[in-house]
Specification:
The complex is a heterodimer of chains A (555) and B (451). With 555 residues, chain A is an alpha/beta fold. Chain A has a domain at 55-307 and 341-446: TIM Barrel. Chain A is 33% helix and 23% strand. In chain A, the strands form five sheets. In chain A, strands 6, 9, 10, 11, 12, 13, 16, 20, 25 and 26 form a ten-stranded parallel beta sheet that branches. In chain A, strands 1, 2, 3, 4, 5, 21, 22, 23 and 24 form a nine-stranded mixed beta sheet that branches. Chain A has a three-stranded antiparallel beta sheet with strand order 17-19-18, with helices on both faces. Chain A is globular. Chain B is built from 16 helices and 22 strands. Chain B folds into two domains: 63-121 and 321-449, Rossmann fold; 125-318, Dimethylsulfoxide Reductase, domain 2 (3-Layer(aba) Sandwich), CATH 3.40.228. Chain B has helices spanning 50-57, 74-86, 100-113, 122-132, 142-148, 159-162, 166-171, 179-182, 217-228, 238-242, 244-249, 262-274, 292-306, 323-334, 356-361, 440-449; strands at residues 16-22, 34-39, 42-45, 66-67, 70-71, 91-97, 116-117, 136-139, 151-155, 185-190, 204-210, 256-257, 260-261, 277-282, 311-316, 340-341, 348-349, 367-372, 387-391, 403-406, 416-419, 426-429. Chain B is of the alpha/beta class and 451 residues long. Classes of the chains: A alpha/beta (555), B alpha/beta (451). Chains A and B meet through helix 1, helix 2, strand 7, strand 8 and helix 4 of A and helix 3, strand 8, helix 5, helix 14 and strand 17 of B. Strand 18 (329-334) of chain A pairs parallel with strand 8 (136-139) of chain B, so a sheet runs across the interface. Bound molecules: zinc ion (ZN).
Chain lengths: 555, 451
Amino acid sequence: MMIKLTGGKVYDPANNVNGEVRDIYVRDGRIVAADPNARVDQEYDVRGKVVMAGAIDPHTHIGGGKVTIARTLLPEDHFKDEVAHTEITRAGTGYATPSTMITGYRYAEMGYTAAFEPAMLPANARQAHMEMGDTPLLDKGAFVMLGSDDFLLRSMAEKQDFEFIKDYIAWTMHASQAIAMKVVNPGGISAFKFNQRKLDLDEQHVHYGVTPRDIILTLARGLLELGVTHPLHVHGCNLGIPGNVETTLATIKATEGLPLHLTHIQFHSYATEGDRKFSSGAVQIAELLKKYPNISIDVGQVMFGATCTASGDSMRQYVGSKNADPKRWVVMDIECDAGCGVVPFRYRDKSFVHALQWAIGLETFLLCDDPWRIFLTTDHPNGAPFYTYPHLIRLLMDRDFRRETMLHVNPDALMYSTLPHLEREYTMYEVAIMTRAGPARSLGLKDLGHVGPGARADITVYNEDSNRERMFEKPAMVFKNGDLVVRDGKVIKVVNGATHVARPEYNRDIEKSLKSYFDRYHTVRMENFRLSDDEIIDGGRGEIIVQPTRARTSS
Amino acid sequence: MTAQAEGDRSGEPTGTHIYNNVTCPFCGLLCDDLQITRTGSTLKVNNGCPRATAGFQRPLPAAKPLIRGSEASLEEAVKAAAEIVRGAKLPLYGGMAGDVANARAMLSIADRTGGVVDHALSEGQYRNFRVVQTSGWIMSTLTETRNRADLFVIVGSDIHKLHGRFFDRIVTPDETMFESLGGKRTVIFIGEGLDTSAATGPRIKEVITLPAAKDRIPEVLAAISAIVRGHPISSGGEEVKRNSLLASFLGSSGDEIAGVKRADIEKVAEKFKAANYGVLVWSPPALSMPEADLTVHMMTEIVRELNTTTRFAGLSLGGNEGAPSAASTCTWQTGYPLRVSFASGAPEYDANRYNIARMLTDGEGDMLMWVASIGTDIGLPQTAVPTVVLGTPGLRLAQPPTVYIPVGTPGIDHTGQMVRCDNVVSLPMQNLGRSQLPSSADVLAAIEAAL
Ligand SMILES: [Zn+2]
């Protein structure tokens, strides 16, 4: 079956195509080279429309225990957004933490065809994958969290051989079926269990004596030497604390050239100028990032309205619980492995702090001059639900709209940010980098994020519209593996996506140490902790795609 | 999965097989370290609590699908079930005792047919959900508690009877990771008649019981709550009177609260404050006092208060009959933890209205599909509406169902996944090759396909 999309304006940064008119051919779910002699079974006239690869969200909390805790916590969040089933789609609920099927439908209806859960606890990996398995229309994958797990901290405190630690990192990625690794408040989630309430970059964990700096460098170097494409995904220390920009700058400098991804950097870019001792540090961060080409970021943009924050950072979420709105929150210590904190929150445009958070996020986007190193996220649902992306894209692409919006936010806040002076408007090409080509390259997704020959035929077709919000919220067509799944912003066919994993090499001897650890301390057997391929494939409902890793090296 | 599990998937089970690292579906702890020997279709548990042993070793009676009491083929029974479902205006999907695949299948057919979903043991789970949905909580999990807790407070629940290996695995394990912090444990039982016999051995520093009657446990908790908040309870009662909630509870005069010595309660409260990592443990089904969710709420408020100075957490057990699997799956698929109606097409949540036990009593709903694939005790509720039961052979039924289809048990007759009582960990369930019974999920899918 040959499909042809005729005459679209194509933005495909991975192949250096910038708005040129191209025909795209699809055969058996993949994009193939143009062949004027091919018999076309189905042609779509997309002249005058914009064509891109399906969008990829590299950081969105769509599956796993804390998301389901958030769903449980706030039934009233769903009452206003109950969705009926149709002939082809299941019922569910939306808003800040949508149910799994609704998550899949709404992402697809917005032109997204892949989304990555960035905070999967090893102990909760099975559930995270079950939830992602119930999320249709999207390819997905997960970043597994280490850094507050007792096995790593013990190993570091005991000064275990670095190859041993690398084996453990790799084993964990295999066992939890992950594509990348994240660290959240390095060591801090564990320290909180020992009643330590704060852990700065060079502060020692009260029990293990290791510092967040040690942990970040250990994991980052480990992943690099294991050949994992996505660098360590870092949710740094001191989230949300005024003055934390200093910690973030120090974290960047600590890498000494190692690659790192700093996530939701907006929450880590706070300085302390002004009467309220709260101001933007976005300029300092953007300037320093220019000198560190190995560091990428995503923003974690805040948007005004009610949402629910869900994080592995139990230490900081516990502190944040005093601002819970409504007054209802969950904090958990989990399995000598990790933790979580779920705190509902309302960002108000008239609030000085919230307006400044909003401004800092936009500033970060506009100051960062390399779109290959910055990804568009709201850290769904922490800064805002993902449905706000089209609005965010308009804020970035449309200076006048941005100015108009600024009139409605707390005016004092804007005095502590450079946002009012920033003239930049994102181009279509830059948006395509930030939402497609960049995340695909960063995550090492071989066949996604572009529309050149060989790519999976995940394609989004937008109607040209000078109102970019309208344009991006309702694509004319979305193809998933060559199937037309969305038309005029509505799901017309439901298919399941694949799960992407990375499998760096490791020495199986690590299981001897792990087996003994699990038997002595854990309540789950090592053999059952591991998630098998069959559990994801689930009789054909799911599919696993193993993305390549580089050869393992040693320093 | 063990290599021995492969090989004989068709025909009658033969030979002797040993299965290691088997997960037990018979209580919410999902202990996964069982070793089970199968000879033919007979299982022998080599290590396990009495409940596990009884569950795995129960001889499985021969069972055939039945339509109005007469034997039928699986196909005929599926067809008959589909007819009953098709004829219903408001089908009820209850029991829900199964694994995640079962919950997925029940939600799918309920969504399609505009039905209501609820679990047989929701009443217990709702004692917790009501608290989460009004104030939230601070919780721990089994492994964290096993290694870290220096104070266990068991509230109103006969944990040793309900969860036979909890003490062995969590309170008195051979090794813990932080011997200097949580190596020696103080165990406090609040409530009379609780089996304290398992709180023994070298790991136990001290065992204290505050023997309040079950319905007066809230008074003891209120007093502890007052003390940890810094309100003395023994200074002539002035402080107590100022707190209306306390005053209402502390009706008893003199040196006793709820029949427990005031001084003992004070001593216990001081131990709460002095703990490095205290854990309040309860089993929701055991909290049978009136307004049990208020008891859960008091516990979580004590935990919240103590966290301002030290670390403290709750640990809810229970979770039998796959209740956490049903609730978690329903929550991620609909946003709501059971008691959901799809009658309007969209999920509608009402924890009182869509309680299936209540609906049946009040004559709501015109068909009941009941799944009981694990234990034999959660038989069909009394009802006059047509019933379809997908049950483990030997399920106790007070009345014969309209259609009965025998199904396998996850972790014995087929593979699966289940969610543990702490709602964090889920475990793989092995196929021990006991029978050829279909999974409830497969039967439900067949019924849905036949609609
Ligand atoms: Zn995040």
